[in-house]
Specification:
Blueprint: E1 2-3, E2 7-10, E3 19-28, E4 34-42, H1 49-66, H2 73-82, E5 83-94, E6 98-106, E7 122-130, E8 135-138, H3 164-167, H4 180-200, H5 202-207, H6 211-218, H7 221-233, H8 238-245, H9 257-260, H10 263-276, H11 280-286, H12 293-303, H13 307-322, E9 326-327, E10 372-375, E11 382-385, H14 386-395, H15 403-414, H16 427-431, H17 440-446, H18 459-467, H19 469-472, H20 474-479, H21 487-494
Parallel strand pairs: 5-7, 6-7
Antiparallel strand pairs: 1-9, 2-3, 2-6, 3-4, 4-5, 7-8, 10-11
Helix pairs in contact: 4-6, 4-7, 7-8, 10-11
């Protein structure tokens, strides 16, 4: 049973190692299949050589700071297989490709690295990989100490003689000469003035064509705040406050962001909120550039008080309830295409068709295994035992370092930090690897039939190259391979 939040193995190729992903969502498609929206985690073999060097440097710093016991070379090799790099990249994969669970934890300074080797299906990560920018960053914050990071507190310069009360602005005095019923009556008058002001305003009449909508808009907090502020400024004198609400030019109209925004702008905001979440900078930049950031933030918190927000919240809750919380994937029992089968005999015996007898496992060098698996390029005739094959699929490497892996790391750094498939190696590279050319039988197997030839020139031709050098100009001719040489002049000179 697999649930949201589990770290799982995904198989996208029968010969490549498993992908390690974290399940974020489980969705059922229209045809009834289940797809998993997952977070991508990358192995060392998936990133460039430069970033691997950076990861090695980070690992050495971790060992020094946490005073880790020095691991052996083989432990260092296997620990690289246990290290992952988290990313913010999502993808959707069929749930039927899940091949099992694993555990991935954030590396803590109290952890002992060698302890991960004793646990099956356990991985750790400390850096975050950005597949777009090709960068590695620390996943957790760090408290930095020093003058570069902390402000230096200066000595006391002088006493602050300012009167703090004069720096404050009083907006309401609860101890005033008005009683609560009088204040409530004044607020009712303020709402009525706001409704009348909206009737006189042409733009408000278009947005709130009915009296009911105008009265509702006039009852919002912006009108009440203006009324209470008017009382404070007029020392709670109702007569003066009334005249302030309705000056000679007409009633005062107070509007908040809910009224300032049009219906189309509100729809744009909801669309942006669905796409970006509460990232107001991106919302303003991509959808509402004519609005200020303060206006967008204020509208958001007012929008949350509307029925529109409540409806969307209910829809999201219903959608979340309809999503799958877990899915059952039966154990995958189909044979792997890389299994070495012998016609007419049991699977996994030595002497498979196309393979030489007596070849050992490329990782542990054992010659006996209940099942063998082809590994690497077909022309290399390499194979792994059952135990090492499972290790390869889960951890993305071999138990012991081989020259093939070292060659692959070199190719990774040379080919513009991109891993070149093993099947694309040149014959010279293949023959230069001692694990695959250590016996004559395999070397003969790898050799290809090529027709040999020799270019033999006459003495006259060799002499003409030197004698007619000023006419032929071989250096210039070499730079112009498609230009013809004046053979007549050469012949006349020879005669």
């Amino acid at each position: 049973m697999y649930r949201v939040g589990d770290y799982v193995y995904f198989e996208n190729s029968s010969s490549n190692p498993y992908l390690i992903r974290r399940i974020e969502e489980l969705n059922k498609t229209a045809n009834g299949n289940v797809e998993a929206k997952v977070v991508c985690l990358f192995r060392r073999r998936d990133i460039s050589g430069n970033l691997n060097t950076l990861a090695d440097s980070n690992a050495r710093e971790f060992e020094e700071e946490s005073k880790q016991p020095t691991p052996s070379e083989q432990q260092k090799h296997q620990l690289k297989h246990r290290e992952l790099f988290l990313s913010r990249q999502f993808e959707s994969l069929p749930a039927t490709h899940i091949r099992g669970k694993c555990n991935v934890t954030l590396l803590n300074e109290t952890d002992v690295l060698a302890g991960y080797l004793d646990k099956e299906d356990c991985f750790f990560y400390s850096l975050v990989f950005d597949p777009v920018q090709k960068t590695l960053l620390a996943d957790q914050g760090e408290i930095r100490v020093g003058s570069k990071y902390q402000a230096e507190i200066p000595d006391k310069l002088a006493d602050d003689n300012r009167i703090q009360e004069k720096l404050e602005t009083k907006v309401w005095d609860p101890i005033n000469q008005l009683k609560d019923p009088q204040i409530d009556q004044f607020l009712v008058v303020a709402r009525a003035v706001g409704t009348f002001a909206r009737a006189l305003d042409c733009s408000s009449s278009i947005r709130q064509p009915s009296l009911h909508m105008s009265a509702a808009a006039a009852s919002r907090d912006i009108t009440l705040f203006h009324a209470m502020d008017t009382l404070q400024k007029n020392d709670y004198d109702l007569a003066k406050a009334m005249s302030t609400l309705v000056p000679q030019g007409g009633p005062v109209l107070c509007r908040d962001e809910m009224e300032e925004w049009s219906a189309s702008e509100a729809m744009l905001f909801e669309e942006a909120l669905e796409k970006y979440g509460k990232d107001f900078n991106d919302i303003r930049q991509d959808f509402l550039p004519w609005k200020s950031l303060a206006s967008v933030v204020q509208f958001y918190y007012m929008w949350k008080t509307t029925d529109r927000y409540i409806q969307q919240k209910r829809l999201k809750a219903a959608e979340a309830d309809s999503k799958l919380k877990q899915v059952y994937i039966p154990t995958y029992t189909k044979p792997n295409p890389n299994q070495i089968m012998v016609p007419g005999s049991k699977p996994g015996m030595n002497g498979a068709t196309g393979f030489q007898k007596g070849l050992s496992c490329e990782s542990c060098h054992t010659a006996q295994s209940p099942q063998w698996y082809a590994w690497g390029p077909p022309n290399m005739q390499c194979r792994l035992c059952a135990s090492c094959w499972i290790y390869w699929k889960k951890y993305g490497g071999l138990k012991t370092p081989t020259q093939l892996e070292e060659k692959r790391e070199t190719l990774t750094q040379q080919d513009n930090d991109e891993l070149r498939p093993r099947g694309h190696m040149t014959r010279q590279e293949v023959q230069g690897m001692s694990p695959f050319t250590r016996n004559e039988g395999r070397a003969k197997l790898l050799a290809k039939n090529r027709q040999t030839f020799i270019l033999q020139t006459t003495k006259l031709t060799r002499v003409a190259r030197r004698v007619c050098e000023d006419l032929l100009q071989p250096r210039r001719a070499a730079r112009r391979p498609y230009a013809s040489i004046n053979a007549n002049a050469k012949t006349i000179f020879q005669v």
